[in-house]
Design goal:
CATH superfamily of the largest domain: NAD(P)-binding Rossmann-like Domain
Distance between the termini: 18 Å
Number of strands: 15
CATH architecture of the largest domain: 3-Layer(aba) Sandwich
Helix content: 25-40%
Strand order of the largest sheet: 3-2-1-4-5-6-14-15
Largest sheet: 8 strands, mixed
Structural class: alpha/beta
CATH topology of the largest domain: Rossmann fold
Number of helices: 12
Radius of gyration: 21 Å
Strand content: 15-25%
């Protein structure tokens, strides 16, 4: 198979879908690898390293037209839709529930789109989402702490406090991978942390994990409203794989919060869990609504691109190699985890949560098509 990798063109996206070591793995398995010139520079990988690993260095258009499978990080942008074609395998993050035009373009183009974020293993884990969720959860604290500073519009609070001055209150909505990592950094920085989730079993796990150092609450509208009213930082860490994120952080909460409090919506890729959320970028990351600072960057891990690229490609490589070795059809039959990642195939939507996000979209089981 001819495997391609181009530079991601999303605003301030510096991650890359393949490292030189990944290229070497594909080449050793008998595949050709086409890489756009300069694709890895933002993550610290030079063209010379890709060439030494066995990649052919080409233009973006040549890679798109010459590959059988495109491996990226973020979703294609509208200017790349012209490269869609029947039978092309696209292996990347897609977040289609928040992007109807992209879903329609993939369906109309006959693209076999495999989304990192919906690939689920038999134990229920999300192996290709987990590394970026870990990074996003930790970054949510790192970035949010900065925007609590008065010079950025925040209330002027230090997360850890100092002797004689109170610690900041951090509220995390969602206790999954993002939420747990956010709580880990917040407690490490000395903040008071509250985590809300709808799974009592997960809350029990978090209580054990943190040795009782965090407050856990069952997630209801009333509990969220009470918690955020006294919060300095709120982190939205809610996830429905492949589906639209429920709006748990209500607009009506904003006037009841502290002026200068910060809300970080990590779920913004899937539409966000805040009613007042809209996507921002790394070069213009925040806005203030009703006195609350909103940080809603859609590709947060891109800010730490080398760490993110290595972590992501460590996870994606084995699945990509299986698709390349067997072809997507056989890989889908042999590995139900890969089947769960297929969002569009042969002009059909093959992810149930995605189809359920739209009233006029039908779901088709990919195993009935391959």
């Amino acid at each position: 198979m001819r495997v391609g990798c181009v530079k991601d063109i999303k605003n301030n996206e510096f991650r890359v879908g393949l490292t030189p070591d990944n290229v070497k793995s594909y080449v050793s398995a008998g595949h050709e690898v086409l890489v756009e010139r300069g694709a890895g520079v933002g993550s610290g990988f030079s063209d010379e390293e890709y060439s030494a690993a066995g990649a052919q260095l080409l233009s973006a258009a040549e890679v798109w037209s010459g590959c059988d499978m495109m491996v990226k990080v973020k979703e294609p942008l509208p200017e790349e839709y012209a490269f869609f074609r029947d039978g092309l395998v696209l292996f990347t993050y897609l977040h289609l529930a928040a992007d109807r035009p992209q879903m329609d373009a993939l369906v109309d183009g006959g693209v076999k789109a495999v989304a990192y974020e919906t690939l689920v293993e038999a134990d229920g884990s999300l192996p290709l989402l987990a590394p970026m969720s870990q990074i996003a959860g930790r970054l949510a604290l790192q970035e949010g702490a900065k925007y609590l500073e008065k010079t950025y519009g925040g209330e002027g609070v230090l997360l850890a406090g100092v002797p004689g001055a109170p610690r900041a209150n951090v509220v995390v909505i969602g206790g999954g991978t993002v939420g747990a990592n956010a709580a880990k950094i917040a407690t490490g920085m000395g903040a008071n942390v509250t985590v809300l989730d709808i799974s009592l079993k997960r809350l029990e796990q978090l209580d054990d994990m943190f040795g009782g150092r965090i407050q856990t609450l069952y997630s209801t509208d009333a509990n969220i409203e009470r918690a955020v009213a006294d919060a300095d930082r709120v982190i939205g860490a809610v996830l429905i794989p492949g589906g639209s994120t429920p709006k748990l952080f209500k607009r009506e909460y904003l006037p009841k919060m502290r002026p200068g409090a910060v809300f970080v919506d990590v779920a913004i890729d899937q539409g966000g869990c805040g009613e007042s959320s809209h996507v921002t970028t790394h070069d213009d990351p925040v806005y203030i609504e009703e006195g609350v600072v909103h940080y809603c960057v859609g590709n947060m891990p891109g800010a730490v691109s080398r760490t993110s690229t290595i972590a992501l490609t460590n996870a994606t490589l084995r699945y990509g190699l299986e698709i390349a070795d067997k072809g997507l059809e056989q890989a889908t039959k042999d590995n139900l985890a890969i089947a769960s990642g297929v969002n569009t195939y042969a002009g059909k939507v093959t992810c149930k949560n995605l189809a359920d996000s739209f009233d006029d979209v039908d779901y088709v089981d990919v195993l009935s098509l391959v």
